[in-house]
């Protein structure tokens, strides 16, 4: 190994060093991870090129979704790769392929068929899939994400054709690391996983819930440019309590009731530990769509030990608070001047309430007073100590001592909230009477119907405007078409955590953060709120347009990267001088690369600035002493490792 790497150092010609790099890639994955951390620009194209021009030839080149370019292979490439004749003779540019794909999708009437088309495209030509998605976010996000992904999960038995990601079941307990080792990609940086118990507002969908981590990670790449090979979706199948699924012949998961209690907790413990053993301590672990009894406690248990966050609690909080911040510019009321009421008192509601209270504290209010202005109403009525069973533990900060109230309309009339936020999974729960009452409570009522998918939204955008005489500030978790009211068109915003988690992930990955402190979510909220223009507000939108999501995600990523150093959670040292350029260097390029042998279009060979051979030898020796140890058994070691690797690469590049 050492001689190979040393040869790499001494090698003056890129072409030759690539061959050596190839040997290293194949044989020493840990080195590759170190290499790609410090030379993000060098891959995937270059590493991919090394692979493809040396290993993959012929039909395999077309079958591999990462390498396939369909009819975009040039004649020279077809000849060089041994695929001449395997494709129709016409050569079509990537741009034209995107246009053709668009035409193909538009032919389908049903959104589920569009979803299936896009899944197949992702399975056969990854770069085309991501360029199509990134260039048409507003059009295709509702297909790969909410609302259609909800339908796809409900029909997952029909949709599931080719495996994507890992399925780890409760019966794999004791062997989870072995299963992770079956995933051949060594450079995974982000894992999004679910146990399928609360899929959107659709309830327990068991293993059918796999569509959610797959969809979330597609947005990691399409919106923030996290490289697709660095993303891994995982379904943790512990059974399902959904009787319909247990009887569904198409069901693809374990046919048993959910395992709960100690056995479940031990399973999740083992999973978290296996992930960092396989991929390193700073692997991003995103909890998605866990049910209320597990979501909060698991976050509390792991948040200081792993690079982890719960998207439904923290990502949702961040996007909702950004919306509330932007809304202050319309209502002319500070956050602390509002009475906020939630329908639903679960993960999303509590996440938003906690972060809103923090934002009010930053406006100069005490935490207790801030919490006092936030009310919650769940399936059993208003959260008050006087109701039967009292205030549930998970929402104890927001319980009041007033008389019990089981009628939501009456509660809205009595409490007179100025902001009403729906996270209840109950479609249509904001009835015309509730909305009219909001219109009476204040001049510019803020109304968020955040439950997903569309069928679960607490009200439609149309209903919100009609019942408040067009005075409301509205946002919804799933998209609604523009509303015509009283001769004016309103383009409402999508209050969805998709504005937050992709940028959060890119920032965290680029700095190798080992934990994600809560203040990062407030920072992300502020960054997002600052993106909202006066022209957006005039149209009725408190979020930037979906087509700006790539720019938004990048700006959030840079803000997160900055915070990562300030909060001492970054592990990439020394801090890059130009953080924005550093973050950019991690972004995936969905443009096809040329697969011609490098002498056609080789970049100039790097000038190796090695002072003396002895110097390089000693540096390398030091690095490999550290590499031989587990990658990140403690933070000091990570820092030391990072520093040494950086020294080596600064010599190399
Ligand atoms: N827009 C976004 O970015 C996000 C939206 N959500 C959506 O929010 C909804 C809730 O998610 P979680 O809080 O994670 O679920 P959860 O299960 O933790 O909480 C649901 C809450 O709704 C309450 N509820 C149920 N039926 C009710 C009824 N008839 N009346 C009043 N309250 C009722 C429950 O008591 C519970 O407090 C889901 O539909 C989900 O899709 C969640 C995360 C992000
Ligand atoms: C958007 C999201 O994370 C949810 O509805 O669960
Ligand atoms: Mg979710």
Describe the protein.
With 653 residues, this protein is α/β, with parallel strands linked by helices. Helices cover 49% and strands 8% of the residues. A 7-stranded mixed sheet has the order 8-7-6-9-10-11-14, with helices on both faces. Helix 14 crosses helix 24 and helix 29 runs antiparallel to helix 30. The two termini are 20 Å apart. The relative contact order is 0.10. The model is unreliable at 1-19, 25-30, 41-53, 599-611 and 629-634 (pLDDT under 50). It binds 1,4-dihydronicotinamide adenine dinucleotide, pyruvic acid and magnesium ion. Magnesium ion (MG) is lined by residues 288-289, 311-312. It comes from Loxostege sticticalis (Beet webworm moth). This is Malic enzyme.
Looking at this protein, list some descriptive labels.
653 residues; alpha/beta; seven-stranded mixed beta sheet; five-stranded parallel beta sheet; 30 helices; 8% strand; disordered N terminus; binds 1,4-dihydronicotinamide adenine dinucleotide; binds pyruvic acid; binds magnesium ion
Element layout with pairings:
Blueprint: H1 2-10, H2 14-27, H3 29-38, H4 45-54, H5 59-63, H6 75-81, H7 94-107, H8 111-124, H9 126-135, H10 137-144, H11 148-154, H12 156-159, E1 166-169, H13 176-182, E2 190-194, H14 211-224, E3 231-237, H15 243-246, H16 261-279, E4 284-287, H17 292-302, E5 308-310, H18 311-331, E6 340-343, H19 347-362, H20 367-372, E7 374-378, E8 381-382, H21 408-415, E9 419-422, H22 432-441, E10 446-449, H23 461-466, E11 473-476, E12 483-485, E13 488-490, E14 493-494, H24 501-511, H25 519-530, H26 534-539, H27 549-566, H28 579-584, H29 613-628, H30 635-652
The structure holds 1,4-dihydronicotinamide adenine dinucleotide (NAI), pyruvic acid (PYR) and magnesium ion.
């Amino acid at each position: 190994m050492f001689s190979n790497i040393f040869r790499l150092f001494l090698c003056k010609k890129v072409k030759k060093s690539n061959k050596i790099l190839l040997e290293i890639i194949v044989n020493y994955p840990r080195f590759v991870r170190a290499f790609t951390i410090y030379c993000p620009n060098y891959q995937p194209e270059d590493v991919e090129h090394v692979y493809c021009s040396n290993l993959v030839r012929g039909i395999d080149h077309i079958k591999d979704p990462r390498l396939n370019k369909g009819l975009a292979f040039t004649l020279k490439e077809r000849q060089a790769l041994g695929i001449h004749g395997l494709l129709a003779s016409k050569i079509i540019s990537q741009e034209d392929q995107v246009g053709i794909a668009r035409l193909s999708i538009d032919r389908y009437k049903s959104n589920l068929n569009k979803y299936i088309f896009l899944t197949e495209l992702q399975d056969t030509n990854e770069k085309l899939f991501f360029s199509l998605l990134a260039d048409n976010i507003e059009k295709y996000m509702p297909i790969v994400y909410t609302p259609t992904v909800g339908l796809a999960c409900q029909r997952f038995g029909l949709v599931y054709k080719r495996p994507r990601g890992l399925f780890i079941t409760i019966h794999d307990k004791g062997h989870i690391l072995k299963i992770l080792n079956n995933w051949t990609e060594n450079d995974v940086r982000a894992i999004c996983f679910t146990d399928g118990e609360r899929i959107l507002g659709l309830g327990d969908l068991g293993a059918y819930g796999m569509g959610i981590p797959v969809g979330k990670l597609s947005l990691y790449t399409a919106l923030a440019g996290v490289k697709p090979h660095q993303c891994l979706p995982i379904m943790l199948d512990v059974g399902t309590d959904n009787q319909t699924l247990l009887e569904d012949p198409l069901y693809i998961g374990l046919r048993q009731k959910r395992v709960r209690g100690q056995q479940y907790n031990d399973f999740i413990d083992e999973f978290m530990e296996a992930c960092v053993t396989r991929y390193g301590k700073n692997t991003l672990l995103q909890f998605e769509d866990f049910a209320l009894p597990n979501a909060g406690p698991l976050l509390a248990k792991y948040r200081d030990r792993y690079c982890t966050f719960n998207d439904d609690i923290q990502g949702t909080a961040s996007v909702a608070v950004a919306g509330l911040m932007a809304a202050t510019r319309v209502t002319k009321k500070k956050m602390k001047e509002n009475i906020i009421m939630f329908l639903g008192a679960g993960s999303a509601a509590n996440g938003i309430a906690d972060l809103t209270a923090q934002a009010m504290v930053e406006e100069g209010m005490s935490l207790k007073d801030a919490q006092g202005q936030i009310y919650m109403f769940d399936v059993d009525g208003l959260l008050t100590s006087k109701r039967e069973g009292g205030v549930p533990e998970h929402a104890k900060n927001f319980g009041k001592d007033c008389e019990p109230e089981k009628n939501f309309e009456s509660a809205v009339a009595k409490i007179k909230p100025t902001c009403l936020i729906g996270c209840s999974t109950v479609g249509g729960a904001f009835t015309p009477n509730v909305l009219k009452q909001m219109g009476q409570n204040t001049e510019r009522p803020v109304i968020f119907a955040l439950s997903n998918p569309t069928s679960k939204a607490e009200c439609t955008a149309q209903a919100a405007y009609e019942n408040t005489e067009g005075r409301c500030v509205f946002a919804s978790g799933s998209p609604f078409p523009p509303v015509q009211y009283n001769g004016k068109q309103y383009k409402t915003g999508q209050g969805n955590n998709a504005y937050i988690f992709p940028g959060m992930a890119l920032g965290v990955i680029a700095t190798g953060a080992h934990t994600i402190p809560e203040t990062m979510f407030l920072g992300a909220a502020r960054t997002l709120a600052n993106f909202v223009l006066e022209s957006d507000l005039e149209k009725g939108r408190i979020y930037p347009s979906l087509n700006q999501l790539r720019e938004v995600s990048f700006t959030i990523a840079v803000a997160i990267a900055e915070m990562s150093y300030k909060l001492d959670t970054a592990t990439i040292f020394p801090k890059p001088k130009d953080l924005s350029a550093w973050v950019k260097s991690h972004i995936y390029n969905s443009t096809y690369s040329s697969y011609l042998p490098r002498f056609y279009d080789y970049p100039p060979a790097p000038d190796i600035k090695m002072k003396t051979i002895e110097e390089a030898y000693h540096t390398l020796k030091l690095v490999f002493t550290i590499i031989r140890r587990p990658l990140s058994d403690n933070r000091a070691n990570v820092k030391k490792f990072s520093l040494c690797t950086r020294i080596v690469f600064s010599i190399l590049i």
